[in-house]
């Protein structure tokens, strides 16, 4: 009986149950279809959420994780035919009778819907896991190098760079040193080496770090973390935690990294102290290090470099060529002999040659003679590492400075530590406080004069450009040494730089006749008293690498005694109580006071410093501006920015500062005119109208939550006189995205309904250079419907974040003749960019960048007449516009041929986009500068480029094309006589392969990165790689017709990474001949390839004793390869000398890895 029951159960299991499932597909047809529609909506919502995260990450310069990008590109086949659907009452939506064929189709569609629902649910679950979609991207300059515009290629330096490159390529050398005297050109040589090693693919990234005498371990870590965009200061809360954090991050990157440490003066334990993992014979993880120093002993004995190169002075011939390239033409018959003698006196030192050549350029013969006579005089100086010749050259350049103001500013710059990024605004504040400028007593004139003086010093090469931007400068360490020496002898700006590497202020250093002192307090736990600096005018107590941790340093009560002449005090991260500190007595002559991140418990005493002209308090925690601040009637600058706790400013304080020229309350006080309860009493806050009493105010930065207060209280006259402003009207939701490169910035985010724009707001709108609008109540509509033609002659950057209240178009009456950047996000009501698709004269004609996002009613972008007006456009980005069908409308052009200088084109998530160009523009409109093209998630786009573009594609460097049938129409290209398509500059190619894969041998001579994903119709049998000697990365997914990967006809010496997934047509990747040439391969990752039986194919003519050496392979992954029997089964011996990680999973048939392995 049990047997019959068991058999019966099996019969039911294998017959009745399957039949029931099939019938269920018919019975639950409507339910399955509805379920599919519901889950499609859920998937759409999930994708929108992830896309928003991606957009935000991209705006912060993050790199998007590969798995996120892949997930967004996954296609779900849900295009079902129109089938009859039952209504709720059981009737059908069409009147046709259901035939047997209908039942078959219903069954098929219902079953397919059920299956698709499972796939969609899996996608939704995956999408919900994406809380983080990217990571901070290392700065681009770590992967590329451009020599400075004035860099001169010298044969001796080029040969030296080649030798250093060869040393760095040696796997047994992990540290290389470069030594030489001051001014010989070690730092410039590093620029050439960086360019050389990146071009030769020796390293993936090069990180240059300036060390110098003043930078310690923390500063070195900050520079590395900054270059890699790690957020090091946020991730590691203590100094001790920074080194292991940095070390782990560098190892995790898996990149080949070169770290260049320039200008070492001390010994460092790079591994334990700094956190730089150094490669060694026992560990191939980590970085290689290139160091420079004036001292060979530091490099060879203390830093243990394996190779050390000496950089010598230039020969006479090279010195002459170098000098002449700068000085230009002159009367050779009269001056050449003297010039050659001057060059000899420069001692072959590039810095001396450059400075002297710049000083003598265009001068008369008597100036040349005077220069030679002064250089010929023998001068003995005692400056460590600076030769007498170099000193004479720099001293001569200093003597030639004509006015005293420039000399004093030059000497002021020597107060800062070497390689310090000197803020020009700090120089302006110090110059005003110290009275360095003659006959100038206002802030605006001071700023302008200092900028002029800085430009003069930069043109003489006595100051240098800074990598931190236009608002900073640097001083070469040799120039600084000479400047400090001059200052000490002239007794004009004698200075002391103190504290670097010291934990206390020594007794013998607490007195002197210094005019200026810079103290690095990073390692101080406290500060002493009892100083005697009777001539001190400038004191800077700094935390140069302050990154937020630790307590503020306590200033003792008598600290400022003995500094009665102090005029400028600048402090960072200090803590003091003025009631116990000698502020009012010792600092009675103070004219500039700057405090950042300070703890000041009794701010009332600042009101007693009645001579103050500049008061800058940033990022401090005080809540109230005391009433006695009204005594500061001499103030020209009041900066209280980023003091977010400030909520009380009593009335009549600001209005009493009648000489005020600049007021900065950005990210600080917002409660204008409010009556608030503070310390058990009601206080009336200052009204915005008090600013109307400041007749000299020309620079204003503040936030005003209430637009009515702004319009009613601030006078038209006051607003009209503003030269610079940064004003937010309404709630600020932009954070730190606001660009600081514009002098006149306005942010508008108004929540209440506004009918018309006028008064002060209109004046700001018409005068701003950068305008951000977050529109929830139709403000943009009001803006574009001002009476008469609305014109802003200054606006350069317009950013609009809108909603359904936005206008349907940017009105034809609007004119922005200087606009360079236009960004529109979330314009749900926007149907066209310009009314009637035409522009008024001189409007939008200078646009360089257009970014459009989430404008779901927009159907097209540019018509022919508009395209030809955008003659400066170089960047076009469009994403997430659901109805957009076309980008460029190309009609019949009758004018002369136009060139559009477009360099970057990005089109993402445009589900209805049919074409980028509706017609082939031929000769009438060309795009010869196009470099970067990124097209993804545009499923209806059939062809990306018109055929005539083939002759204009040589500049394209990056091409990413997903869900595009064709890049070019091959048939049209043939008709126009273009038999071959060659991307001569293309380095990055990413695309989904579909039918008509048109690449030819020789199409990509410079290809560096290749990512291919198979499509439904792809016919890719082999990769067209015969031409690509530069290829470094290959990634191929879902190319089932691909039979083999790397042909033996081409060598792949530069290939570093090989990733293959879901390619089921291959039995192996490459043969032994190819394997022997993969000398730089670091990563092999093969997953989900059902056909692969071995990775390396055996050749017929192999001989025993031959070796295949994977000399750089670090990681090998083989996952889910059901037919893989071995890695290699031939006669050659395999070697993996640097293999660190081997992963083999899901390879059930692998019994032997290989028959000959040597490590």
From TrEMBL:
Keywords: ATP-binding, Coiled coil, Leucine-rich repeat, Nucleotide-binding, Plant defense, Repeat. Residues 160-329 form the NB-ARC domain. One of its GO terms (molecular function) is ADP binding. It comes from Momordica charantia (Bitter gourd). The keyword Nucleotide-binding applies. Pfam families: LRR_RPS2, NB-ARC. This is Probable disease resistance protein At4g27220. InterPro entries: Apaf_helical, At4g27190-like_LRR, LRR_dom_sf, NB-ARC, P-loop_NTPase, Plant_NBS-LRR, WH-like_DNA-bd_sf. It comes from the Eukaryota. Residues 819-959, 1049-1152 form the Disease resistance protein At4g27190-like leucine-rich repeats domain. The lineage of its organism: Eukaryota, Viridiplantae, Streptophyta, Embryophyta, Tracheophyta. Residues 26-60 form a coiled coil. Belongs to the disease resistance NB-LRR family. One of its GO terms (biological process) is defense response. PANTHER family: NB-ARC DOMAIN-CONTAINING PROTEIN, NB-ARC DOMAIN-CONTAINING PROTEIN-RELATED.
């Amino acid at each position: 009986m049990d047997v019959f029951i068991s058999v019966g159960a099996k019969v039911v299991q294998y017959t009745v149950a399957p039949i029931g499932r099939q019938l269920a597909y018919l019975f639950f047809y409507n339910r399955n279809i509805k379920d599919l529609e519901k889950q499609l909506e859920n998937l759409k919502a999930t994708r929108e959420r992830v896309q928003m995260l991606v957009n935000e990450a991209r705006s912060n310069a993050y790199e998007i994780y590969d798995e996120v990008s892949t997930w967004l590109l996954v296609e779900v086949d849900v295009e079902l035919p129109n089938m009859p659907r039952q209504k709720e009452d059981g009737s059908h939506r069409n009147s046709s009778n259901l035939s047997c064929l209908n039942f078959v189709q219903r069954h098929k569609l219902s079953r397919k819907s059920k299956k698709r629902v499972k796939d969609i649910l899996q996608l939704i679950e995956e999408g919900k896991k994406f809380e983080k979609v990217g990571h901070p991207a290392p700065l681009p300059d770590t992967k590329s190098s451009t020599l400075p515009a004035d860099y001169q290629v010298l044969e001796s330096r080029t040969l030296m760079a080649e030798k250093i490159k060869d040393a760095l390529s040696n796997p047994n050398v992990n540290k290389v040193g470069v030594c030489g005297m001051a001014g010989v050109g070690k730092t410039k040589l590093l620029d050439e080496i960086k360019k050389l090693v990146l071009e030769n693919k020796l390293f993936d990234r090069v990180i240059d770090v300036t060390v110098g005498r003043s930078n310690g371990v923390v500063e070195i870590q900050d520079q590395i973390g900054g270059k890699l965009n790690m957020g090091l200061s946020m991730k590691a809360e203590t100094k001790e935690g920074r080194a292991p954090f940095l070390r782990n991050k560098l190892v995790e990157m898996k990149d080949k990294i070169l770290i260049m440490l320039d200008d070492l003066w001390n010994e460092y334990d790079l591994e334990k102290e700094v956190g730089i993992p150094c490669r060694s014979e026992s560990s191939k993880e980590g970085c290689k290090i290139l160091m420079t120093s004036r001292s060979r002993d530091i490099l060879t004995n203390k830093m243990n470099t394996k190779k050390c190169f000496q950089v010598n002075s230039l020969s006479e011939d090279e010195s002459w060529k170098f000098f002449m390239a700068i000085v230009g033409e002159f009367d050779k018959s009269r001056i050449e002999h003297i010039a050659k003698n001057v060059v000899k006196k420069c001692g072959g030192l590039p810095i001396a040659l450059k400075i002297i050549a710049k000083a003598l350029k265009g001068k008369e013969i008597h100036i040349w003679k005077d220069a030679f006579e002064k250089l010929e005089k023998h001068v003995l100086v005692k400056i460590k590492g600076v030769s007498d010749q170099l000193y004479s050259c720099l001293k001569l350049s200093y003597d030639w400075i004509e006015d005293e103001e420039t000399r004093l500013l030059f000497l002021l710059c020597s107060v800062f530590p070497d390689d310090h990024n000197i803020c020009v605004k700090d120089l302006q504040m110090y110059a005003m406080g110290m009275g360095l400028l003659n006959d100038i007593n206002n802030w605006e004139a001071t700023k302008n004069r200092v900028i002029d003086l800085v430009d003069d010093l930069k043109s003489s090469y006595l100051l240098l450009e800074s990598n931190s931007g236009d608002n900073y400068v640097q001083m070469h360490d040799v120039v600084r040494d000479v400047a400090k020496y001059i200052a000490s002898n002239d007794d004009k700006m004698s200075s002391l730089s103190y504290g670097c590497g010291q934990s206390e202020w020594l007794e013998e250093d607490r007195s002197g006749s210094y005019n200026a002192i810079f103290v690095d307090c990073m390692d101080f736990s406290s500060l002493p008293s009892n100083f005697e600096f009777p001539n001190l005018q400038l004191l800077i107590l700094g935390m140069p690498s302050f990154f937020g941790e630790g307590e503020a340093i306590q200033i003792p009560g008598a600290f400022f005694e003995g500094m009665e002449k102090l005029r400028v005090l600048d402090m960072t991260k200090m803590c003091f109580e003025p009631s116990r500190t000698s502020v009012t007595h010792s600092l009675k002559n103070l004219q500039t006071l700057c405090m950042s991140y300070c703890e000041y418990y009794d701010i009332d005493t600042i009101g007693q410093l009645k001579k103050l002209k500049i008061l800058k308090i940033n990022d401090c925690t005080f809540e109230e501006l005391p009433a006695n601040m009204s005594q500061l009637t001499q103030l020209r600058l009041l900066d209280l920015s980023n003091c977010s706790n400030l909520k009380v400013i009593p009335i009549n304080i600001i209005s009493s500062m009648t000489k005020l020229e600049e007021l900065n309350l950005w990210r600080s006080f917002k409660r204008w005119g409010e009556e608030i309860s503070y310390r058990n009493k009601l206080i009336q806050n200052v009204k915005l109208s008090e600013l109307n009493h400041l007749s000299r105010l020309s620079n204003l930065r503040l936030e005003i939550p209430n637009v009515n207060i702004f319009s009613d209280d601030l006078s038209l006259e006051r607003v009209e006189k503003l030269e610079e402003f940064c004003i937010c009207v309404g709630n600020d939701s932009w954070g730190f995205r606001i660009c600081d490169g514009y002098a006149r910035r306005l942010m508008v985010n108004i929540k209440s309904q506004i009918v018309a724009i006028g008064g002060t707001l209109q004046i700001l709108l018409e005068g701003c250079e950068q305008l951000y609008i977050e529109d929830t109540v139709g403000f943009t509509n009001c803006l574009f419907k001002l009476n008469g033609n609305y014109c802003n002659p200054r606006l350069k950057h317009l950013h609009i974040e809108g909603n359904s209240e936005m206008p349907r178009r940017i009105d034809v009456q609007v004119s922005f003749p200087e606009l360079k950047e236009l960004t529109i996000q979330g314009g749900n009501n926007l149907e066209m960019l310009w009314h009637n698709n035409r522009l008024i004269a001189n409007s939008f004609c200078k646009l360089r960048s257009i970014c459009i996002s989430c404008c779901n009613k927009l159907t097209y972008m540019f018509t022919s007449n508009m395209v030809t007006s955008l003659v400066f456009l170089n960047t076009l980005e469009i994403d997430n516009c659901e109805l957009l069908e076309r980008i460029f409308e190309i009609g019949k052009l009758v004018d002369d041929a136009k060139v559009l200088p477009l360099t970057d084109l990005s089109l993402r998530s445009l589900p209805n986009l049919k074409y980028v160009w509706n017609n082939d523009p031929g000769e009438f409109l060309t795009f010869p500068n196009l470099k970067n093209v990124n097209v993804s998630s545009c499923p209806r786009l059939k062809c990306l480029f018109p055929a005539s573009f083939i002759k204009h594609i040589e500049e394209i460097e990056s091409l990413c094309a997903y869900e595009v049938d064709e890049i070019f129409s091959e048939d049209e290209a043939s008709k126009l006589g273009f038999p071959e398509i060659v991307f001569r500059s293309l380095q990055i190619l990413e695309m989904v392969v579909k039918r008509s894969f048109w690449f030819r041998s020789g199409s990509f001579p410079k290809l560096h990165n290749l990512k291919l994903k198979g499509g439904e119709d792809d016919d890719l049998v082999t990769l067209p790689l015969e031409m690509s000697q530069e290829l470094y990365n290959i990634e191929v997914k879902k190319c089932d017709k691909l039979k083999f990967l790397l042909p033996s006809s081409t060598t792949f010496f530069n290939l570093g990474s090989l990733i293959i997934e879901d390619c089921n047509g291959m039995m192996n990747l490459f043969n032994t001949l190819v394997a022997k040439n993969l000398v730089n391969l670091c990563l092999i990752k093969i997953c989900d390839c059902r056909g692969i039986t071995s990775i390396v194919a055996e050749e017929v003519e192999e001989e025993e004793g031959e070796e295949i050496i994977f000399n750089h392979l670090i990681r090998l992954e083989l996952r889910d390869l059901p037919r893989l029997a071995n890695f290699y089964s031939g006669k050659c011996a395999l070697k993996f000398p640097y293999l660190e990680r081997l992963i083999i999973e899901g390879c059930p048939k692998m019994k032997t890895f290989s028959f000959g392995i040597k490590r």
